[in-house]
Sequence to fold (170 residues):
Amino acid sequence: MALLPILYYPDSRLHTVAKPVRQVDARIRQLIVDMLETMYEASGIGLAATQVDVHERVIVIDESEERNKPLVLINPELTWSSPDLQVSDEGCLSVPGIYDEVERAAAVKVSALDAEGHSRVIEAEGILAVCIQHEMDHLLGKVFVEYLSPLKRNRIKTKMLKTRRDTERA
Ligand code: K1U
Ligand code: ZN
Fold:
């Protein structure tokens, strides 16, 4: 097992579009183990491979209170999203300390492969639907701050760059 370094906004690599996984093999299974460890250690409820600089369509999620119900989505495809929307507070391990409201579909259906390479259909609502949409955006190179106003986004970018400079100097 290994903790993977997480890319921080505004790192341009976060805007890379991920490629489909060709084969769920030992390399992908190891990536999943490492991503789950990284997500749990960072106290996140989700993580996309893009955030650890791997540009393949892999997502891990665990929104259970006990932190013992991992969900693995490989090559996820959105097959349905509800016309009704919900606004919720989002955070991102690539934009630490920043939380803001984003409007998304209230419910989604997604088809994906699981960690064994078996096809699965996931029907989600509430925080799971939010998290799935947030992580699928990462695979398309989109970070949640792109839903915010240019003013807010620029303030966040400036704050993140200052934090990076201060960390490098320390
Ligand atoms: O993709 C990520 O960076 C993980 C992200 C997932 C996420 C959380 C909340 C809404 C949408 C997507 C996080 O885990 S952020 C940290 C976190 O645990 C959290 C933040 C706000 C609400 C609930 C959880
Ligand atoms: Zn995120």
